[in-house]
From TrEMBL:
Protein name stated in the entry: Glycerate kinase
Family: Belongs to the glycerate kinase type-1 family.
A GO molecular function held by the record: glycerate kinase activity
Species: Halomonas daqiaonensis
Keyword Kinase recorded: yes
Phylogenetic placement of the source organism: Bacteria, Pseudomonadati, Pseudomonadota, Gammaproteobacteria, Oceanospirillales
Record's keyword terms, sorted: Kinase, Transferase
UniProt GO BP: organic acid phosphorylation
Length: 381
């Protein structure tokens, strides 16, 4: 029996590779004739770089950059010399997880560090860039990234804007003449884990701003500021991408990647699965086990378990989802190829206990479901 094990990370508990290892351990405890193939995945959020490096054998590199608050930090990125491909995960430089709850400020956080990572890639001779956008602490529409790559964003008096999304309300001039000329020869693919537009009630500010410290008043201010950026970009570039699905990813970085880098926006899980060669593995599998911290109705917007299930459905392979929590709307996964889903907790427990025991719970739940699977298979035989 061939089992393809392809979870995402379990937030605050296990990276995807460790989750896959725990599931495989539980599978092997059944003692049956089981071949467990570990293929950790990601959907564009935290852990995407690790998944891409594991899938491609690319070299892990590190660079001195600035975090979302402008503080010096180090961030990893990936380099595949043979294909001249760079892998950049936004969360490495401008990630929400790097900030304490008290530090989160959607008004003033910046994507400058992401631009610095792209510059590192260009310095290495990159001809292709895979940019993943999940897990951001930012809501600046990619303004910081543009500044790091040579653009100037000025107010009506000709002063450079201060970092952060709130300052864009004063944007009067978008000067792109000094934007790094090497970008013209760079093919950019951008992995997004949501399909939200840039603006409005489903936009970057309204949906994701509160997670980054934005109050209700802040959301209105940020939405107006991003609209200002979109207006000037449309006038200057002759194209308007504010309504593009995924434009609202990472506080508007999806919009910036498309408008200023000419990026192709793709669901992150599809991009990562393509890099990992999951389709070929899927065609040879008898069962797929995937999962992440939470499965809910929003998972259909591009989260890993649903992306995996949609691919598995094409090959008629059953899919089991293991989740830390099954939240409202999780049953929608049944229409997307999910065969069954299980929450991990084996009894009442605190969140801290669930996080600490995540690997143990994954292994136990996997062993239980596979023992049932094998027993019913033997009965059918």
């Amino acid at each position: 029996m061939k089992i393809l094990i392809c979870p995402d990370s379990f937030k605050d508990a296990l990276p995807a590779a460790d989750a896959a290892r725990a599931i495989a351990r539980g599978a092997r405890r059944t003692g049956g004739d089981i071949e467990a193939l570990e293929c950790p995945l990601a959907d564009g959020g935290e852990g995407s770089l690790d998944a891409l490096l594991a899938a491609t054998g690319a070299e892990r590199r590190s660079a001195h950059v600035h975090d979302a608050l402008g503080r010096p930090t180090r961030a990893d990125w990936g380099w595949h010399a043979e294909s001249r491909t760079a892998y950049v995960e936004l969360a490495e430089a401008s990630g929400l997880q790097q900030l304490t709850p008290d530090e989160r400020t959607a008004l003033h956080s910046t994507t400058f560090g992401v631009g610095e990572l792209i510059r590192e890639a260009l310095d290495s001779g990159a001809e292709r860039l895979l940019l993943t956008l999940g897990g951001s602490a930012t809501n600046d529409g990619g303004a910081g990234m543009l500044a790091a790559l040579g653009a100037r964003l000025r107010d009506a008096e000709g002063h450079d804007l201060t970092p952060g999304g709130a300052a864009l309300i004063d944007l009067a001039e978008l000067d792109l003449k000094d934007l790094d000329p090497r970008l013209a020869g760079l093919r950019v693919e951008t992995a997004v884990d949501v399909d939200n537009p840039l603006l409005g009630e489903r936009g970057a500010s309204a949906v994701f701003g509160p997670q980054k410290g934005a109050t209700a008043d802040d959301v209105s201010r940020l939405d107006a500021a991003l609209a200002r950026l979109a207006d000037l970009a449309a006038t200057q570039l002759g194209e308007d991408h504010r309504d593009l699905p995924g434009a609202g990813a990472a506080g508007g970085m999806g919009f910036a990647a498309k408008a200023f880098l000419g990026a192709e926006l793709r669901p992150g899980i599809e991009l990562v699965m393509a890099q990992a060669g999951v389709e070929a593995l899927m065609a040879d599998a008898d069962l797929v086990i995937t999962g992440e911290g939470q499965l809910d109705g929003q998972s259909l917007a591009g989260k890993t378990p649903i992306g995996v299930a949609r691919l598995a459905r094409r090959y008629g392979v059953p899919v089991v989802v293991l989740a830390g929590r099954l939240a409202p709307g999780w049953q929608a996964g049944f229409d997307e190829g999910v065969t069954t889903a299980f929450a991990l907790a084996d009894g009442p427990m605190t969140l801290d206990e669930a996080l600490e025991r995540c690997a143990e719970l994954l292994a136990d739940r996997t062993e239980s479901l596979l023992r049932l699977w094998v027993a019913t298979a033997d009965h059918r035989a």
